[in-house]
Amino acid sequence: MNKIVALDIGGVCLNLRFELCREYLGGAGAEEVPTQLLAASDQYERGLLSEKDWLEIFTSVTEGRFTEDELRHAWNLIIGDAISGMPELVNDIVNAGFRAIFFSDTSELHLMHIYRNLPFAHLVSGGIYSFKVGSKKPEDKMYESFQEEYGRPYLYTDDKEENVAAGIKHGWNSRKFVSAAELRKELASIF
C-alpha cells in the first residue's frame, strides 16, 4: 500500500474567498472579472505565463489603479483560512505514518502564500502543482505527473466532481471532499 493521501488545496485544505479579491479591486460580482484576466490567470496557473507578464495584464485590466504589490495582495486575498478540522486531520494522517501531498491547480504566488499562512502546511511533504506541470486537473498530465513522482495515492480527495472522476479513471481511490469529518471516516482504517 502506498502511504500517501493526495489533497487538493482550495476547497479541501482551505477556503477560497474570490469575493475579497473582487471587493479589494472595487467589483462585486464574478461577471465583473474581465475575460482577459481570467484567461491570463489560467495561463499563469499553468506556468505558461510569467508572474511579470501576468501582472502586466492584471495592471492593464485594472487600468493602472494598483501597484504590483497591491495586485499581489488582492490575488492572495483569495486564499482563506484552513477548513475546519483539516489541521487536526492532516496531523493525524502524518502521525499514522502516511504522507500528505498537495495536488493542486495553483500559481507560485498562491503557493508561497499558502506555505506562509496555512497552519499545517509544514506537515505536507510535497506536491504536484499545475504551474510546474503545465496542465490543470482534470487533464491526464496532472494525474500522470503525480503517479510518476509519488505513485498511486492511498486516497485522493478533491471538492470538484470532475477531478474526482479523473482520479477514478486513473485507478485512484478518489472521494469528493465534503468535510474534514467525512474525510476522517474515509481514513478511519489508518488511525
Overview of the structural elements:
This protein has 191 residues and is α/β, with parallel strands linked by helices. It has two domains: 4-14 and 82-190, Rossmann fold (3-Layer(aba) Sandwich), CATH 3.40.50.1000; 18-77, DNA polymerase, domain 1 (Orthogonal Bundle), CATH 1.10.150. 47% of the residues lie in helices and 16% in strands. The chain is built from ten helices and seven strands. The strands form two sheets. It has a five-stranded parallel β-sheet with strand order 5-4-1-6-7. Helix 1 runs antiparallel to helix 4 and helix 2 packs antiparallel against helix 3. The mean pLDDT is 95.
Draw up the topology in text.
Layout (H helix, E strand, L loop, with lengths): L3 E4 L6 E3 L1 H8 L9 H11 L5 H11 L6 H9 L2 E4 L3 H10 L3 E6 L3 H10 L6 E6 H4 L6 H11 L4 E4 L2 H9 L4 E3 L3 H7 L5
Parallel strand pairs: 1-4, 1-6, 4-5, 6-7
Antiparallel strand pairs: 2-3
CATH architectural grouping of the largest domain: 3-Layer(aba) Sandwich
Order of helices and strands: EEHHHHEHEHEHHEHEH
Low-confidence runs:
none
Please count the beta strands (DSSP E, at least 2 residues each). Answer: 7
Terminal CA distance reads 15 Å
Q: Characterize the biggest β-sheet.
A: 5 strands, parallel
**Number of discrete helical segments:** 10
Strand order of the largest sheet: 5-4-1-6-7
CATH homologous superfamily caption of the largest domain = HAD superfamily/HAD-like
> How many domains is the backbone divided into?
2
Category by helix and strand content? alpha/beta
